[in-house]
Amino acid sequence: MESMPTLKQLRYFAVLAETGHYRRAAEQIGISQPSLSQQISNLEEVLRLPLVERGRSGAVLTPAGREVLQHAHRILADVRGLVETSDIMKSGMAGTLRLGSSPTLGPYILPNVVRSLHRSYPKLRLIVRDGSPAELVDALVAGKHDLIMTPLPIRAAEVTVTRLFREPMRLAVSRENPLAQKVEATDADLAKEGIMTLASTYAHHAQLSELAREIGATLRPDYEGTSLDALRHMTAMNMGVTFLPALYVTSEIPDPDEGDVALVPFRKGRFFRSIGIAWRTSATHTPMLKTFADLVRTTVKEHFGDLVIMER
Questions:
Q1: How far is CA 179 from CA 49, 149, 266, in A?
Q2: Rounded Cα–Cα distance for residues 53 and 62 (Å)
Q3: Per-residue DSSP letters for the chain?
Q4: Quick count: other Cβ atoms within 10 Å of Cβ 86?
Q5: Phi and psi, residue 236, nearest 5°
Q6: For 257, what's the count of Cα atoms within 13 Å in the CB-facing half-sphere?
Q7: What pLDDT digit, counting tens, does each position of 153-208 carry?
Q8: Which residues on adjacent β-strands are paired with residue 149?
Q9: CA-to-CA distance for 297 and 301, rounded, in angstroms?
């Protein structure tokens, strides 16, 4: 194997170029002048190039020396960056996190989370991928995500779940529906309605299926939505009723009096979905994941604390 320049040789060469004098460079580094001269000679021998003109006036770089110096500066800067990144990563918040997020949740809280993350941990990059809860869990277990943020429950072995908050679910009905005029809808009212949900891969489907069984309502499997927007539009056309998460409502129906659907109180606002973050129990960077979960919790409390119920 051919010899390669060492970082020590490159650093000594850079100091010599900066000072322009062997004695001053040796003093700055803290070695003897003959030792410095030997290291520079070794570097020239490895590169097979004359780098320095030696004379009474000091050390002057040759054209080849000036070119090598540029490379040396870049290499030394990269090494310093590597060391700094290593120090930061030891503290737990640097590198890249791969987050899987439900499309019924991520668009409404992640913009604030990303801003908080960049402000607090500028060395940490976040890659976000959307997917249904079922898809997210499969991808987490397969190692494609470092963590996922999704409605609960999560049923998977060797997965650690931390609860974040409970989010109210708002009953949405067509403005043509008689329920739109009610002060509050009852279980008996909904028993007469067809309830529309997202596809069965979403927690929304399981939650509303359970509600329908509980109150004797009819689920409308022929009208399963592909998104919350689709559910809202179908509801506006009086194809059935549905429940929309409060964060979605705040974002997409900012003025309930003017929205395309009517929002009717139900169970005194105590019908919730639970939101959590999960990661593989075997993950070696658990402290980073816990810190990220705490940041999400803090950000949600700051921006939506009057809308959701925080959990620990």
A1: 87, 33, 11
A2: 6
A3: ------HHHHHHHHHHHHH--HHHHHHHHTS-HHHHHHHHHHHHHHHTS--EEEETTEEEE-HHHHHHHHHHHHHHHHHHHHHHHHHHHHTT--EEEEEEE-TTTHHHHHHHHHHHHHHH-TTEEEEEEE--HHHHHHHHHTTS-SEEEEESP---TTEEEEEEEEEEEEEEEETTSGGGG-SSB-HHHHHTSEEP-B-TTSHHHHHHHHHHHHHTPEE-GGG-BSSHHHHHHHHHTTS-BEEEEHHHHHHH-S-TTTSSEEEE-BGGG--EEEEEEEEETT-TTHHHHHHHHHHHHHHHHHHHTTTSEE--
A4: 10
A5: -60, -30
A6: 0
A7: 988 888 999 999 999 999 999 999 999 999 999 999 999 899 999 999 999 999 99
A8: 101, 277
A9: 6
**Structure tokens belonging to residue 267:** 């169970």
Q: Quick one: angle between helices 7-19 and 63-90, nearest 10?
A: 120
**Phi first, then psi: what are they for 33, rounded to 5°?**
-65, -40
Structure tokens, 57? 């006036």
Using an 8 Å Cβ cutoff, are 238 and 262 in contact?
Answer: no
Q: How many residues does the chain have?
A: 312
Q: State yes or no: pLDDT of 309 exceeds 90.
A: yes
For 29-73, the pLDDT digits (tens) are 999 999 999 999 999 999 999 999 887 767 889 999 999 998 998
> What is the DSSP secondary-structure string of 7-46?
HHHHHHHHHHHHH--HHHHHHHHTS-HHHHHHHHHHHHHH
Q: Is the dihedral of CA 185, 163, 293, 229 positive or negative?
A: negative
Indicate the pairing of strand 309-310 with strand 159-174: antiparallel
The answer to whether the beta carbons of residues 150 and 203 sit under 8 Å apart is yes
* Structure-token pair, residue 179: 């329920």
Q: How far apart are CA 245 and CA 120, in angstroms?
A: 28
**Confidence (pTM):** 0.71
